[in-house]
UniProtKB/TrEMBL annotation:
Keywords: Golgi apparatus, Membrane, Protein transport, Transport. The keyword Phosphoprotein does not apply. Residues 918-1023 form the AP-4 complex subunit epsilon-1 C-terminal domain. It comes from the Eukaryota. Subunit of novel type of clathrin- or non-clathrin-associated protein coat involved in targeting proteins from the trans-Golgi network (TGN) to the endosomal-lysosomal system. This is AP-4 complex subunit epsilon.
């Protein structure tokens, strides 16, 4: 017999009901489902209007209404029928009416007042099942202003003869308490229910009592002995056998009572001593080898660790934890780790006997076990082992992708670092490493704490030490800004920009021009409006102290005066205005005055002459509006159907990612597609596969020099696990770490635990000896020696910039001597199909030999050589790199380097396709059509956007990324064109907008490589959807 036949015969459902359920279940789309439901609601409306409808049929109608409401279709016309159905004498029909009422009608609706009379009538019914149904509905539907009407009736039912009614009355009172929180009144009711002879009523009273105790434990402290007696009664098996589970008496009863005791005992040693016997009995009797027994024992351990320490209970907890570790059940091992975390809060020595278990869990194959054990390490932290544990956790953090795990672990690390911070340098180094891998989850208060520490210095008040520490921070943050070519986290951008701008004047060894250029490059690499505001303020402070406004800063400020981000626009206008009054700018932004208090005149009396003048001119006087301080009414629950969202382009999705633009276009995915426009010739272009960049373990240093972490370690003499400067090791998150073998992992974890416990023992033996951290002055002295030799031992600093000119690309090369060097030879190599011409250089003694080679006899310390060049195109460049090689000899020996030995330094600057192309301003539609048919080098793509696409947003994207100017827009199509200056080669494009999130694009050029390279550049600049 089929289920459908049973539903149509035995369950006495109508054919319409079964057909409706089957049609909804078989709907193939949301639109089809909506049509079915709307059609059924129309039939229901007519059926409800019938004069006489039997109760069983009305119950079926209400169930169909529940289905419609559940699927998002309001049926307000049926709400009154749900209320009427609750007045039926039939129990099943009545319960259906109550169910429909609390599921479809919001508590704030006026119709809810009608249900009160039905509730009161059923509460006074002689049928206890009707009374129980009314109490269940009362806990769901009654709102605050109706509580006074039913509360007396609910209280009277606490003395009902049926245990089911008394239990339901307690649950209903719990719901009323959550709405009113009349503490004293409800406390007495629940205590009376706790003494009920029926265990079910007692168990129901525990949940509201737990809420009351947690709200005000001091008021309920006198009830501790009462709950101890209740727990003794349960443990001694004085409840009936119906409440035993896996040979454990009332396990959920015990867990609830122990949670109440944990809130009541708190720090009272007297009350903790009273709990010793009953907790011993709980753990002993729960040792049945069953899962529920271990659950009760784990709750008891949690209680034991939250009250004043009792040695006998602690030893019993440790033994129980060892038994849980002995099982191979994953859930029990997870519970054991949680118990160890609680024990570690008292004393980490209790974890020593479980060292092997912790070691095994760190290498466990279950991800949750490894994650829980990693959090256990935080409980073991102290001043001696915090450095070891935090390094391990940050390494683990780099391998996580779960958003909530990242957030929880990052905040836990921040709290641990702030609690056990050893020295300032270690604290800043650790926080910077944390910002590099999880900046979006670091609390704002922790970032403010970093800045406060740099500003206020140490507690000793040694000004020289504070200055040396700030100098170290400036040099390391500037090194990060100038060395990294990747996008930095916004929080780290703000911190670095603020430190360099506020205390950059302390770093006399760093050229101010390089400092400003580094901040401008950082501005180009970030797309956050907030971070850009901080960078502009940092540049403003440096310019104010230096008294000179560089040309690239002027260009940047003028470009972003029209920013759509209001704060960025305001900063640019302020900067532009202050540059016209440099003395005022210097007074407004004094050096090292960030902590100085500024007196603010709240009355703004200095504006009185301006106000009087405006009033005399006929301006309307200001009228102070009264402030309404009345309590607003609560907004009722919205049960209306959501409005259909309007597709529009979000400004936030058009934020710019590079310095050339100000707003970022919609995120697009570029994929090859089949030919949709133009002549059908040949096969479609192949898929462009973009992978990770080569040498992704490497980072760029200085003016383009690339060094690996191992090379950096060899130069600085540190290990990969030690902090390098203020930042520590640079962790590359783009490549997953190769998983080690089991033996290697166990040996590493074993060494980790040995280091943790050994550091703790050493701290106890010698409390005055902290973790070995280089002395602040020693660190500064070592850093100064490094500065004398140049960055990472190099005698020169090399930096390149580029600007777009009308017919060429302007390139400026900066070479700064960190030490005096002789026989300087500079050779610049342009990309293929390009030529370089040196137009000027800043040092008269420098000689130009050839078109791209410059020689110089001597470059002194801190002397700067600036070379201005033009890059001209003879064809499409196959690569986009400008390379420079500098050969020199040191004038003074450094370490093991011989005086006469030649050294070299290289740097590379990568250009984008938009740097070479220029908009085809003279292109017309007719000319476009003629050239389109002549060009055969074609490449096709599909643009996919996470935000809604429009022709305007696509044209903006193409102009920003590839200088493609719109020739004409026709309907949902647009044609664009760009020219390669110096060669007259054209790049033509045709885009068809398919829908709000997809567009097909075709690019043609005389050389197909040009079209293909443009697509690849767009693909690398825009994340895939």
């Amino acid at each position: 017999m089929s289920k459908l036949y049973k539903a149509q015969t035995e369950m006495v459902h109508t054919w319409e009901f079964t057909a409706f359920i089957r049609a909804v279940g078989e709907a193939r789309s949301k639109q089809e489902e909506d049509e079915i439901i709307q059609r059924d609601l129309g039939n229901l409306r007519k059926s409800f209007e019938t004069a006489h409808v039997e109760d069983w049929l009305l119950k079926e109608y209400v169930v169909r209404v529940l289905y419609a409401e559940m699927l998002g279709h309001p049926a307000k016309f049926a709400h009154i029928h749900c209320v009427n159905l609750s007045a039926s004498p039939d129990l099943l029909v009545k319960r259906t009416g109550y169910l429909g009422t609390w599921l479809t009608i919001a508590p704030q609706e006026d119709i809810m007042i009608l249900i009160v009379s039905n509730l009161l009538r059923d509460m006074n019914s002689c049928n206890f099942l009707h009374t129980a149904a009314a109490l269940t509905a009362a806990s769901k539907v009654v709102r605050r202003d109706l509580i006074c009407a039913i509360k007396p009736e609910v209280v009277k039912l606490l003395d009902h003869s049926a245990p089911l009614v008394r239990k339901k009355a307690v649950i209903a009172l719990h719901a009323l308490y959550r709405n009113t929180a009349d503490l004293i009144d409800y406390k007495n009711f629940f205590l009376r229910a706790l003494g009920d002879p029926n265990p079910a009523v007692e168990a129901a009273a525990l949940s509201p009592l737990l809420d009351i105790v947690q709200t005000n434990p001091e008021l309920c402290r006198d009830l501790t002995e009462t709950f101890i007696k209740v727990l003794e009664k349960v443990v001694s098996r004085r409840l009936s056998g119906d409440y035993e589970y896996q040979r454990v008496p009332g396990p959920w009863f015990q867990i609830q009572v122990m949670r109440i005791l944990a809130a009541l005992v708190c720090d009272s040693r007297e009350l903790a001593a009273k709990c010793e016997y009953v907790l011993t009995e709980v753990i002993t009797r729960a040792d049945t080898g069953s899962t529920i027994g271990y659950a009760v024992a784990c709750e008891a351990i949690s209680l034991i660790t939250r009250i004043p320490t009792i040695p006998s209970l602690i030893e019993l907890s440790v033994e129980t934890t060892a038994k849980m570790f002995a099982t191979r059940n994953v859930n029990l091992r997870y519970t054991a780790i949680q118990a160890l975390s609680n024990l570690a809060c008292i004393n980490t020595d209790y974890l020593r006997r479980h060292q092997e278990d912790i070691l095994e869990c760190l290498g466990d194959g279950d991800e949750m076990i490894r994650r829980k054990t990693t959090f256990l390490l935080l409980s073991m932290c102290n001043e001696g082992n915090v450095d070891i544990i935090v390094k391990k956790l940050i390494k683990y953090l780099n391998s996580q992708i779960d958003k909530y795990v990242l957030q929880e672990l990052t905040q836990s690390i921040c709290r641990t670092v702030e609690r056990f911070s050893m020295r300032r340098l270690w604290y800043i180094s650790t926080m910077n490493r944390l910002l590099l891998c999880a900046a979006e989850h670091v609390p704002y208060s922790s970032i403010q704490g970093m800045l406060k520490l740099i500003v206020e210095g140490g507690e000793s008040g040694d000004e020289a030490s504070d200055v040396a520490f700030r100098l170290r921070c400036v040099e390391d943050y500037f090194g990060l800004i100038s060395c990294s070519q990747k996008k930095m986290p916004d929080a780290l951008c703000r911190v670095a920009a603020w430190v360099v701008g506020e205390y950059g004047f302390l770093a006399t060894a760093i050229n101010r021009r390089l400092m400003v250029d580094g901040l401008c490059d950082l501005f180009a690499r970030t797309d956050s409006g907030d971070a850009r505001d901080w960078i502009i303020m940092a540049v403003m402070k440096i310019v104010a102290s230096d008294g000179v406004v560089p040309e690239n800063v002027k260009e940047l400020i003028e470009r972003f005066k029209d920013s759509r981000i209001a704060t960025t626009q305001q900063r640019c206008y302020e900067f532009s205005r202050l540059t016209q009054m440099l003395p005022l700018m210097k007074r407004s932004l004094p050096l090292d005055r960030c902590c100085e208090e500024v007196d603010i005149e709240e009355t703004l009396s200095f504006l009185n002459p301006f106000v009087q003048k405006a009033l005399l001119g006929g301006a309307k006087p200001y009228e102070k509006r009264p402030v309404c301080r009345e309590v607003r009414m609560e907004i009722p629950l919205c049960i209306e159907k959501y409005e259909t969202p309007q597709l529009k382009t979000s400004e936030a999705s058009l934020t710019c990612e590079v310095c050339d633009t100000e707003a970022k276009p919609p995120e697009l995915a570029i994929r090859p597609s089949t030919r949709r426009w133009g002549a059908k010739t040949g096969n479609a272009a192949a898929m462009v596969n973009t992978g990770l960049a080569p040498d992704s373990h490497m980072r760029e240093v200085g003016g383009g020099e690339r060094i690996t972490l191992s090379a950096q370690v060899a130069r600085t003499g540190a290990t990969l696990d030690e902090p390098c400067g203020v930042f520590g090791p640079q962790c590359d998150q783009s490549l997953p770490a190769t998983p080690p073998t089991l033996g290697t992992k166990c040996s590493k974890n074993k060494k980790l635990l040995e280091d943790i416990f050994d550091a703790s023992v050493q701290l106890k033996k010698y409390p005055h000896v902290a973790q070995q951290v280089p002395d602040l002055f020693e660190a500064v002295e070592v850093e100064n020696k490094k500065n004398l030799a140049g960055e990472n031992g190099s005698a020169l600093s090399v930096h390149m910039e580029h600007v777009r000119e009308e017919r060429a690309v302007g390139i400026t090369l900066f070479i700064v001597g960190n030490v005096t060097v002789n026989d300087l030879v500079v050779n610049v190599l342009p990309p293929s199909n390009c030529t370089l011409h040196v137009t000027s250089h800043s040092v008269q003694s420098a000689k130009l030999t050839g078109s791209t080679t410059i020689t110089m006899e001597t470059l002194k310390v801190n002397q700067s050589l600036e070379v201005v060049m033009q890059l001209l195109l003879t064809g499409f460049p196959n690569d986009m790199h400008v390379r420079v090689k500098v050969v020199y000899r040191r004038s003074e020996p450094f370490d093991m380097i011989d005086v006469g030995k030649s050294e070299s330094k290289t740097a590379t600057m990568t250009l984008q396709v938009g740097d070479f192309l220029r908009p085809a301003s003279s292109m017309t539609t007719d000319t476009f059509g003629e050239m389109w048919l002549k060009y055969i080098g074609e490449y096709k793509t599909t643009l996919h956007g996470t935000a809604a696409l429009t022709l305007e947003s696509i044209s903006q994207l193409l102009m920003e990324r590839a200088s493609l100017r719109v020739v004409e827009m026709i309907g949902n199509e647009l044609i664009v064109a760009a020219v390669l200056p110096g060669t007259d080669q054209l790049l033509l494009g045709h885009v068809v907008l398919v829908d709000h999130h997809c567009a097909n694009a075709t690019f043609r050029a005389q050389d197909k490589r040009l079209a293909e390279f443009v697509v690849r550049s767009l693909d690398s600049a825009i994340p895939l959807s």
